[in-house]
Design brief:
132 residues, alpha+beta, Glutaredoxin
Length: 132
């Protein structure tokens, strides 16, 4: 590990480790939480998913949304619509949003996550479950 050269570097490392610990603790109760999953495969990262992930992480922390867990996934199979974000509310089916910009992420946070409303930009499922 390289030497710390400034207080700012140390604070960034502290925040990174703290968020990883928070994620682990929240992960034990994921079924009771709103889960925001950002697709972080190569195509998603190239389309800006890292910035979207950072936005959600920062906003959830800043707003003190204890019932929201931010995590990442690999490819969701919607490469044409990256960056993609999947929202899963307790007891409900997941909803995947495509072409998520920072402005759309803000709308998704306000409406879909906090208020529980659907927002424009949902990627429709193209298959049925085996139960149907």
């Amino acid at each position: 590990m390289p030497k710390m050269m400034s207080l700012e570097e140390l604070q960034k490392l502290r925040e990174k480790v703290k968020s990883q610990i928070d994620l682990r603790e929240k992960g034990e109760h994921a079924e009771q939480m709103i889960v925001v999953r950002v697709a972080m495969a190569t195509c998603g990262i190239a389309a800006g998913a890292r910035e979207i992930m950072n936005y959600f992480s920062e906003e959830v922390r800043a707003r003190g949304l204890e019932n929201v867990m931010i995590t990442q996934s690999g490819c969701m199979g919607y490469c044409y619509a990256e960056p993609t974000v999947e929202i899963t509310r307790p007891g409900a089916e997941s909803v995947v949003y495509g072409h998520v910009t920072k402005e759309r992420a803000q709308l998704i946070l306000e409406k879909a996550i906090i208020e529980g409303e659907l927002v424009e930009g949902i990627i429709p499922m193209s298959h049925q479950s085996l139960d149907e």
